Known about the structure:
Helices cover about 0% and strands about 65% of the residues. By secondary structure, it is mainly β. The protein has one domain (about 5-80): SO1590-like (AOC barrel-like, Beta Barrel), CATH 2.40.350.10. It has a five-stranded antiparallel β-sheet, with no helix packed on it.
Amino acid sequence: MSRATGTFEVKLDPQALADRSANAMLGRLSINKQFHGDLEAVSKGEMLSAGTGVKGSAGYVAIEPGGWNLARPQRQFCAAA
C-alpha cells in the first residue's frame, strides 16, 4: 500500500450568517486549505458550527471541494466532515 506524506496549512475566516438574528451559538467559517508534499492540493469550502451552554459541547459540518495532483493527472474531490 502506498502512503503520501506532507504538510498542510488551513486558513479559517469568520463569515456572516445568512440570518443575522440567529442564535449567537451558531457560526460560519470559510475554509482555505493547501496541501504540500507528495500530495499537492487546494481545498476551499465552508464550515457551519453550533455550540451549547455546556462547556466542550459543540458540533460542526464542513464541505470542501477541491483538486489534487498525486503523480498522476489532476483529479477532483469533495471532502465532508
